[in-house]
Amino acid sequence: MAIVRWPVELRHGQVALRPLRAGDGTEWAAARQRNVSWLRPWDATQPPGADEGARTFRAMARDWNRQARYGRMLPFVITYGGAAGVGPRSKWPLVGQLTVSGITYGSARWANLGYWVDEQYAGRGIVPTAVAMAADHCWFTLGLHRIEVAIRPENKASLRVVEKLGFRYEGERPRFLHIDGDWRDHRIFALNVEEVGPGLVARLR
């Protein structure tokens, strides 16, 4: 099992990624509560018969960070410094989450990437920047070869993110993930490191 340097913090302009922390529970829960209707159609749910019981936010954060230290995932929160990016980064508000999961090494060297953003911050280029930073970190620091994003066909905002960054459409996977209470079709987008040149952050420039 690969041991990966963690925690990791990334920043480009007014957008930053930092590890999800056990102490983020109040701010994270408030953001999720504000965005219940905005996020429900895209939220992962447990299929019938799943035995994974409820757990506290602190337990989830500790588990995810433990997995990150062993190279299995990267649980980031997205923070935003505003139009001017002023003030210390530690005070920037939590505006979303980005998780790199399913990290596989060996001959595959790939991972999945998923995200959400607070509705009041949507449309500011925050998510494309966060995705670009995370993907570049996976390719150029962790040495992964492929990044994959699965998006429901109805999720127009997420489709615009992968289009802006130049992800390649690979087709549809029927009933691929359990989302909003049922198995949902997803469109698959991917990029290999050979396709991105100096990286996705450079594309945004």
Task: Describe the 3D structure.
- Keywords: Acyltransferase, Transferase.
- One of its GO terms (cellular component) is cytoplasm.
- This protein is an alpha+beta fold.
- It has a single domain, classed as Gcn5-related N-acetyltransferase (GNAT) (Aminopeptidase).
- It is built from six helices and eight strands.
- The chain has an eight-stranded mixed β-sheet, sandwiched between helices.
- Helix 4 crosses helix 5.
- The longest helix has 15 residues.
- The radius of gyration is 16 Å and the shape is globular.
- The termini are far apart.
- The model has no long low-confidence stretch (mean pLDDT 93).
CATH superfamily label: Gcn5-related N-acetyltransferase (GNAT)
Q: What kind of sheet is the major sheet?
A: 8 strands, mixed
CATH level 3 topology: Aminopeptidase
Q: Classify the beta-strand content into a percent band.
A: 25-35%
Helix run count: 6
In order across it, which strands form the biggest sheet?
A: 1-2-3-4-5-6-8-7
| Mean model confidence by pLDDT | 93
Helix-strand sequence? EEHHHEEEHEHEEH
CATH architecture: 3-Layer(aba) Sandwich
Shape: globular
Q: What is the level 1 CATH name?
A: Alpha Beta
Q: What is the rounded Rg? A: 16 Å
Q: How many angstroms does the end-to-end distance come to?
A: 36 Å
Low-confidence stretches: none
Category from helices, strands and their pairing? alpha+beta
